[in-house]
Design a protein that fits this description.
homotetramer, about 140 residues, alpha+beta, five-stranded mixed sheet, 5 helices, about 20% strand, metal-binding (chains A, B, C, D), CMP_dCMP_dom (chains A, B, C, D), EC 3.5.4.5 (chains A, B, C, D), hydrolase (chains A, B, C, D)
Chain lengths: ~140, ~140, ~140, ~140
């Protein structure tokens, strides 16, 4: 995937972060998934007064996409506009993301266009029993 | 809210359950939220090979709605087509739902039109420090 | 169960809250479970920089007790020393607690001895498909 | 850390898996944490009828250890006796584990002594904003 496409996806993640419900952390996050049909599904972090029931932007996007009938995605961008440095997806999100896309899936994340990390799901989630063993669950 | 409206919402929850990703439980669930502008946002349960990272249909709907900019909802219907009896929302969903709607919000759930429970968020989640104290977070 | 026994359990929950790891919420919680053999298992809330991976005190206690081989408990006390009013268990904890104890199990919670709520698991978690149907899972 | 020490820890993880409560997955897991004072804290996976509220063995061990006052650990072993191949910790556990121990912390996992993976927290959880930035939270 070309970098320009990833940057376009990142812009959509930034817009998605505006709908974040994060009164507890004050840390808005947005995520954008590129689907196989070319459409984009976004999500924001939705927190809860019981912190453990908060949901990250990446998982909001995945749950929205899967609930709409999608079963995989081609790329992911994550925007954390209020961070001073790129913040990668949390472990729970890495786990959920790898349920639906292969290790080579491109991922980018950052606070702004000037300071981003470009990687893949496989680099973020090594030792994945599911994909390493060729399962296609 | 009239029962006919709740039944209409229930039909949408049933349709939503068709997008369930539940290879581990084989138990599809669909949820439908009625929004203040009259639109409906749906969700399905999206499971994970690490069971603890599974997400219920009710929360899929909430995360989708909030990510789209909504901040509350007016009613909820839950469909569990493969159950033999009405299955209410789990505790995690009750917690997340009450973050965004008042105790009087109507909820219905069931496996089919013939065997349903009609209740409210407040009945499902008593002793809620948030709403009992008049917070409007 | 006599109130004096519940108050004794509450004292142990208060002590347990001192081991809380809650740098994000600054809201320590402690929980104490009375087991069938008369021993007490305690837990504290253990938070995470990814808020959604935080764990409540009640569930810390349950996971500790079950991991030690217990399969049920007889009573629960929850202490939230920094709250201004009694704060009940969150929905996720109600769900986990009801997996292991019947509806009549006594629960008390509060910030201090002077302002407590005495209730039961069943009152905290109505419409529980599991116990209403007599399952003994 | 010497391999013999890790194997000793692995034996304790195997024993811990016997207390697993896993009626839904039928997949018992045990975890053992070596603490700085030389003691070992174990945990098992504790599942729930609402799959998303299941807890892994690794997190059971962490929540037990932290609730007991520990704030870090020196090594981790994970046993999955019923697997045909080594199964690494899920993403949620990687996230929780890295809150409390540095990237170099040794981890081993496997189904039996004959087929194990030896790695570190940092290899399991790359791109960790917390530790990459030198935080010692």
């Amino acid at each position: 995937m070309e970098k320009s496409q990833m940057m376009e996806l990142f812009e959509k993640a930034k817009v998605a972060s505006k709908n974040s419900y994060s009164p507890y952390s004050k840390f808005p996050v947005g995520a954008a998934l590129l689907m196989e049909d070319g459409s984009v599904v976004t999500g924001a972090n939705i927190e809860n007064r019981s912190f453990g029931l908060s949901n990250c932007a990446e998982r909001s996007a995945v749950f929205t996409a899967l609930s709409a009938g999608y079963r995989t995605f081609k790329a992911l961008a994550i925007a954390t506009p209020k961070a001073d440095y790129p913040v990668g997806p949390c472990g729970a999100c890495r786990q959920v993301l790898t349920e639906f896309a292969p290790a080579g899936t491109p991922v980018c994340f950052g606070a702004s266009e000037d300071n981003m990390v470009f990687t893949t799901l496989g680099e973020l989630y090594p030792y994945d029993s599911l994909h390493e063993l060729g399962s296609d669950t």
